[in-house]
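Structure tokens please, single chain.
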Amino acid sequence: MKENKLLVLVIGNISTGKTTFIQNLNKRKNRIVIINDDYPDVNSGDLSHDIFEALQIDKTVVLEGNYVSRHNRARVINPVSSYIRNTKFICFDFGPGNNESLERRLLNPTSNKEKIIEVHTKFLIQYNKPIIQEGFSKIITCY
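Here you go.
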């Protein structure tokens, strides 16, 4: 069993490059990539269960999601650090988004345009730049 576990959070607003980055990371072995959108009800416990299970079998977990607020990141970091000791957390921050990221999403919409604008604006307002005090060992700014 590995002495240190690794959980990587890839955060940012919609259409900031998270998924493209994840696709490249996913090509490497010994990683489990968890896309938050695959869990329609993040409060169900399924997401936490899958994170814990992967870390316990010595997989590096890469968790991709918006996680733009400190509160949302704490909902991942706090339980993991409480139950699985020696977990290191690394953050790849793709930022709050901007007009360019919004336009990029609107060119290839996954839902109606009004909803996309609403979600993008909400995440832009909620964004808190990640800080080491949240529990991260390292923060890499990607914007």
